[in-house]
Structure formats: C-alpha cells, structure tokens
Amino acid sequence: MAESTAEFVDRYLRETASVAHGTNRGDLCRIIEILFAAHQAGRAVYTCGNGGSAANASHLACDLGKFASPEGKRPFRCYSLCDNAALVSAITNDLGFGRLFAEQLRGRIEAGDVLVCLSVHGGSGEDQAGPWSQNLLGAARYAKERGAKVVALVGYDGGALKRIADGCIVVPHTDAGTTSTPHVEGFHEIYHHLICERLRQLVLAN
Q1: Of 134, 201, 203, 175, whose CA–CA distance to 20 is shortest?
Q2: β-pair partners for 126
Q3: What pLDDT shows up at residue 129?
Q4: Which residues are paired to 79 by β-bridges?
Q5: Distance between CA atoms of 147 and 163, rounded to whole angstroms?
Q6: Mean pLDDT over all residues of the chain?
Q7: 5-205 — its CATH code?
C-alpha cells in the first residue's frame, strides 16, 4: 500500500477543507429561505433518501422537529418518509420501490409544503438494480405537481434532482477535482446542521 494511514487521514481532512471552501453559500441561503417560509406559513416538510441518505433524511427530520423548533415557538411540521419499516416494505412489495416516496405523499402533500430529497448522485447513473433514486425523482415530480417546493441535497453533477429542485446544494469536488460518497454524505450532514442552526435563530427572532 503506497499511502500510510497517517497520510490518508491528512489527505482526507485536507480534501474536507477544500470541499467546505468550495461550497456555494448562495445555494444554502436559498434552501434556508424555502424552509423558513414553509415554517412561517405553517406548511409541512417531508424528507426522503435511500441508503445512507435515508439515515440522513431521518436525522434532518429529527433536527427540524427538535433543534430548529425551540420551546415556546411554533414547531416545524416535519416527517421522514424513510422510518416506517412496515409501510416501506408494504409499498415496495405491492407497488415497487420506485413508488416508495410518492405513494406516501399521496393525499398528504399540499401547495406550500416542502419535500427535501437527499441523494449522492441525484438520480444519475445506475447499477444492477437499474437507474438510481427513481423513487426520489418520482416523489419530486409528484410534489411539484401538487404545488409543493422541492429541495435537494446532492453530489457529483447533481443529477436530475438538481434540475427539478427549487433549491439545491451540490457538494463540490475537492480542489483536486475528485469526490466520493463519504464526502457527499458527510457534507449533507454538515449542511443540514448549518441549515437547522440558522432556522433555529430565525424562529427565535420571529
């Protein structure tokens, strides 16, 4: 192995710093504006993702409902579409994985609500199961049809979600021009904590 563990750790942290430096500040501000507007209007926020992004979606819903909703203030109405294992398996078994999230939004999502989609590739690319994240794209399209806003946290080239979303943050490549799933998913957590901390400030001030 050409690279020692110490060299790997140093390189990874330097890459992390370069990704943070290259992050689009305006895109983060836009997402905060969309979510705060939904809160002020009493609208709901739904989160979704696959794999590690499903865990991040659950974490984001938790932080919106708890951390960004200080005592004495109106809380965010937020729901993760990843957490009900029985419902996830029932929809997947009966209707297919591609309809997992759109089906949960049926009869629930309304104009002014927000759907937050977290995806490493944003729906671009495929593997043995076929095209990636089609359930996210289906949900995003359904949300838009219902008059809801779509927010996307993505990586690589942003994929189809970048083109659909009303607000989108793409984890940038490192200064060396590389990216990876660990960096993308890790920065989605950094971004969501930044977003929630600013939302908490805004809620407290209003």
Answers
A1: 175
A2: 131
A3: 66
A4: 46
A5: 16
A6: 95
A7: 3.40.50.10490
List the strands of the sheet with 167-170, edge to edge.
77-80, 44-49, 114-118, 149-154, 167-170
pLDDT above 90: residue 131: no
Amino acid at 186: G
Rounded Cα–Cα distance for residues 31 and 16 (Å) = 22
In this structure, which amino acid lies at residue 128?
A: Q
The runs of H, that is alpha helices, within the chain are 5-22, 25-40, 52-65, 85-95, 100-105, 134-145, 159-164, 181-205
DSSP 73: S
Residue with tokens 């759109």: 102
Tokens of 59: 């974490």
49: CB partners within 8 A, 6+ apart: 55, 56, 57, 82, 117, 118, 119, 136
From 113, 107, 165, 105, select the one nearest 135 (Cα to Cα). Answer: 105
Residue type, 169: I
Residue 41 φ/ψ region, left for φ over 0, alpha for ψ in the -120 to 50 degree band, beta for the rest: alpha
For 20-46, the pLDDT digits (tens) are 999 999 999 999 999 999 999 999 999
Place of tokens 């989605």: 188
